[in-house]
Amino acid sequence: MVQRNLAFLLLFFSGFAFSNDVLNDPNALLNELLKEINVVNSKYEVLIYQKHAELDKINYTLHTSLNTKKKVNLLISKDLLESEIKQLITDNSSDISKIRYIKGLQIIKILYEKVLSLDHHFASIRTFSEINKIANPNQYPEFEKMKNLVAAKKDKKSGYDLTSVLGTNTIVSVIQTFTNMLSSSLTKEEKEKELANIECILDFTLRMQNDLNTIYFETAFLQKSNEKMKSEIEILFKDYTKPITYFTTLEACRTNDDWENVTSKMDEYLSKMKTTTGQAQYKMQVNLEFPIDRLLQFITLYNNFIDQGGKFYEKFKVILNSYENEKQCDSKLPLEYKKLKTDIDVAIDKFNIAYKPVEINGTKMKEILYGLNEFD
Predict the structure, then answer these.
(1) Mean pLDDT of 69-95
(2) What does each C-alpha distance from 196 to 192, 203, 332 come to in angstroms?
(3) pLDDT at 12
(4) Minimum mean pLDDT among 166-175, 244-253, 255-264: which range?
(5) How far, in Å, are 106, 282, 335, 370 from residue 28 at the CA level?
(6) CA 28/CA 14 separation, integer angstroms
(7) What's the pLDDT score for residue 332?
(8) Are 244 and 272 in contact (CB under 8 A)?
(9) Taking the CB of residue 321, how many other CB atoms lie within 10 A of it?
(10) Is 367 helix (H, G, I), strand (E, B) or coil?
(11) Virtual CA dihedral for 151, 153, 156, 162, nearest 10 degrees?
(12) What are the boundaries of the signal sequence (predicted)?
């Protein structure tokens, strides 16, 4: 029996040694899960059908036989067959529970890697200081040069200096620079020359500042949401492995590559469940079933987050492509702006491919929860 369980585990779980598609794609795992459930159901359907066929023969003979001793033997055989049918139904349910539990654990492992990858993605995005550098004209050498020139040529009587607080305000700083320029001793030609040098910078930063800040703050929101996702899947793993008495955290399990120990604990539990009978076996099976529901709840949370993230980045792409003077100011635009556009294109691809939602529709949900096919 132990050898059979070990073979079962090696087939479905050993070392998480899957093909590349299954290794990275929870949808491929779910499809495997449904196929395996159908195989198990088909196997037991044949066995139960055979037992019912034997039972029908016994019932027919009972009605037609007049031999009392023969009837007694037939009744004993009937009771035995009915017990065997009940046991087959229990074994069928138990085998499906094992498959769902094993595949669920594999899905948790894959989704955890995706959540960690998202965490790394958000940690490497444009920081507020980088966004500020793109959106603030005071960060551009050309504008700083003009400010210094205007400061040196300003009218000492009508010109003014900003406080340290207002000096960092983009709009106020630009207004002050232009006001001082108008009253400065610069010639008309000098003013026009300086203005031509910074017109694209000012146009870009004043038009795009709010939009760029929106990208930063909404990305920060996504990062916080992903931190919640990470916390949720770690709690899920704790609940999921509690029945098999594995109490190491998901983070520690991954860091220490302790999946073999998880497999060992699960093997012990499944072997014990196989040899347990009655209410005790039912309770052990329920303990395996309950975490599946929690996993499906997390998948819904994950799917909503990925859908939301993809829509956010599509929005960011529209925002960045909305600068109407991009062509004529292309040579003056900061490299960070172009890099940000590239980063967002890459992020959209990741949300559509690498992080794509797990496909669970109503029919698939029914099969995963109950091992039932709507066409059965």
Answers:
(1) 89
(2) 6, 11, 11
(3) 37
(4) 166-175
(5) 11, 30, 40, 19
(6) 17
(7) 87
(8) no
(9) 11
(10) helix
(11) -10
(12) 1-19
Q: Is 209 helix (H, G, I), strand (E, B) or coil?
A: helix
Tokens of 61: 């003979």
**In the prediction, which pLDDT does 165 show?**
46
Residue 301 sits at the vertex; the CA angle it makes with 297 and 306, to the nearest 5 degrees, is: 145
Residue 276 in tokens: 């347990």
**Nearest to 12, CA basis, from 28, 34, 36, 31:** 36
| CB distance 200 to 137 below 8 Å | no
pLDDT digits (tens, 9 = 90+) for 272-319: 887 888 888 888 888 887 788 888 889 989 999 999 999 999 999 999
Q: What would the two tokens of residue 212 be?
A: 């760029």
Q: Which of 356, 347, 359, 133 is nearest to 222 (CA)?
A: 347
Tell me which residue has tokens 């948790």.
108
Whole-structure pTM value? 0.76
Quick one: 314 exposed, middle or buried, by C-beta within 10 A (0-12, 13-18, 19+)?
Answer: middle
Radius of gyration of the chain (CA): 34
Contacts of 333 (CB under 8 A, 6+ apart): 200, 204, 326
C-alpha–C-alpha distance, residues 292 and 169, integer Å: 53
- pLDDT, one tens digit per residue, over 165-219 is 455 567 777 777 777 777 677 778 887 888 888 889 889 988 898 898 888 889 8
